[in-house]
Specification:
237 residues; Spore Coat Polysaccharide Biosynthesis Protein SpsA, Chain A; seven-stranded mixed beta sheet; 7 strands; 38% helix
């Protein structure tokens, strides 16, 4: 199996079925893939609706957390059971466009050194305040980490499974993929992608809450990168 689409969800009962339909319709004629949803402690019918679609889509899988653990933990759970060599990460609210997935795969095929292809949203379908907060956060992060990525918050990414599993794990890890993957000696590519309006429901994040958590996360990543030293090539003798 070439790739697995891993989608963390929390209380997205009205979004999951349209997303499943779209994914299999758009990607069904390409390379072999699977879709792994990770229900991060939903209290609505999210899990039940995903399970209701399994008879029609054999490559649809569901992992469930007993309690809310966060997006990075959900990604780790999904990637841990995934069968694909490559992992496509995607949000469960319908904002990411499945039509962009083949373009991520094409970018990875061009250079074997690439371990991450990050989606960069051309035009965010979001509130003015959220766009401003994101721009400020991205500026501070780039200044400290020099990751050269203008949009790490985009949920649509392609990452090699073995590389992800080799990264240090912490909350909000998904926001620092470009910096950490480069620090571990792998290549990073970026591809413009579409951003769509959320189908239904509300975001699980607030600007203030994300900013406070982001400060502590950023300081932690600065420390991790400074304490990460890659050994020289060590051929077997």
């Amino acid at each position: 199996m070439l790739y697995s689409v891993v989608i963390p969800v929390l209380n997205e009962q009205d979004n999951v079925l349209p997303l499943i339909e779209e994914l299999f319709e758009v990607l069904g004629k390409g390379p072999a893939f699977e879709v792994v949803f990770v229900d991060d402690g939903s209290t609505d019918d999210t899990a039940a609706r995903i399970l209701s679609a399994k008879p029609r889509f054999p490559n649809l899988r569901l992992v469930r957390h007993a309690r809310r653990s966060g997006k990075s933990a959900a990604l780790r759970s999904g990637i841990g059971v995934a069968k694909g060599t490559w992992i496509v990460t995607m949000d469960g609210d319908g904002q990411n466009d499945p039509h962009d997935v083949p373009r991520l795969l094409e970018a990875a095929e061009k250079d074997k050194a690439i371990a991450l292809v990050a989606g960069i949203r051309r035009k965010r379908d979001d509130t003015v305040w959220r766009r401003i907060a994101s721009r400020v956060g991205n500026g501070v992060r780039q200044a400290l980490l020099h990751d050269d990525c203008p949009d790490t918050a985009c949920g649509l990414k392609l990452i090699r499974r073995d590389v992800f599993l080799g990264l240090p794990f912490f909350d909000s890890l998904h926001r620092f993929f470009p910096a950490l993957i480069r620090r571990h000696g792998h290549g990073v590519a970026m591809v413009p992608v579409n951003d769509r309006a959320r189908r239904t429901g509300q975001s699980k994040y607030t600007n203030f809450g994300r900013a406070i958590a982001g400060i502590f996360d950023l300081m932690g990543v600065v420390w991790i990168m400074r304490r990460t030293t890659l050994p020289p090539a060590a051929p077997e003798v």
